[in-house]
Design goal:
single chain, 71 residues, mainly alpha, 89% helix
């Protein structure tokens, strides 16, 4: 089960990345701009993946705080 989830996640990521590249190539015809955007996207994705547990804990803490103190 975990292997199929990982494969599905990888395929989904590849599809989304391809769509982003397609949109960027239509918006920015300069090849260097597209390359820079792709590198930035890869770096941001890698950082988010590396810190996913701390990000998840931060979101959970914020969500629980809002649940306890509704405005």
């Amino acid at each position: 089960m975990a292997e199929s989830q990982g494969a599905n996640r990888a395929v989904g990521t590849a599809i989304v990345f391809s769509a982003i590249c397609l949109v960027c190539s239509s918006l920015f015809p300069d090849r260097r701009a597209i390359f820079g955007l792709m590198v930035a996207a890869v770096i941001i994705t890698a950082l988010a993946y590396a810190n996913k547990e701390s990000i998840r804990m931060y979101i959970k803490a914020k969500w629980n705080l809002r649940q306890r103190n509704p405005r």
